[in-house]
Design brief:
The protein is an alpha+beta fold. It has 5 helices and 10 strands. It has a single domain, classed as Nuclear Transport Factor 2, Chain: A.
């Protein structure tokens, strides 16, 4: 029920502002995002993609991204679906600090920042073929010069060896930032960025 000044009263009689109400709705989208990354049910991937704006507007920036359109910088629904499918197949368990997320809202746009952990659930050997395919992709990337290709592939390989040394069950900390826009039927991710500290 609306009250003067843009406030609303919920079924328990608590008064919330329109901004608080929108922030709560954004937090719910973040919770659904985490649920997808926890269950990792590929049969639900198409429904999960409804959390993103459609078409070419959406961006997902991975932890290895350094330039727009380059490695781990994904634009558009199709590219984002592909990387999420890969994440759900080869990544581990994702835990996002939902309640600790700082969420700001201005009209039809929201931005957030939070932290989380990625716990390795697969052994190195289970994902080795995927890792080698990724390294080959980096070496074959003609958009980069030979030195850069070798550097990117070497860095990627060393990172995977570091993960192996940490072992299954290790929790890698990350930071997640995102921009969401409100469409007619709800809030959707426009831009999402994963980052991890350099170790």
């Amino acid at each position: 029920m609306a009250s003067p000044g843009g406030s609303q009263v919920d079924e328990n009689g608590a008064v919330t502002t329109a901004v608080e109400s929108r922030a709560t709705a954004v937090r719910a989208v973040l919770r659904r995002f985490q649920e997808g990354y926890q269950t990792r049910d590929l049969t639900e991937l198409d429904a999960f993609m409804d959390l993103f704006v459609s078409g070419d507007q959406a961006e997902l920036i991975g932890i290895g991204a350094t330039e727009r359109g380059g490695y781990e910088w994904f634009q558009g629904s199709e590219a984002i679906r592909g990387v999420i499918e890969s994440d759900w197949t080869y990544w581990g368990d994702v835990t996002i600090d939902i309640e600790g997320a700082r969420i700001s809202v201005s009209r039809e746009v929201s931005w957030l920042s939070t932290t989380g952990w990625l716990r390795q659930t697969q052994t190195f050997d289970q994902a080795l073929r995927f890792y080698l395919e990724q390294m080959k992709g980096l070496l074959d990337n003609t958009a980069l010069g030979p030195d850069d290709r070798l550097m990117e592939a070497t860095h990627y390989g060393l990172r995977r060896l570091r993960e192996r040394d940490k072992g299954q069950g290790y929790a890698w900390p990350f930071v997640l930032t995102a921009v969401l826009v409100r469409e007619r039927d709800g809030w959707r991710f426009h831009t999402l960025h994963w980052s991890m500290p350099v170790d």
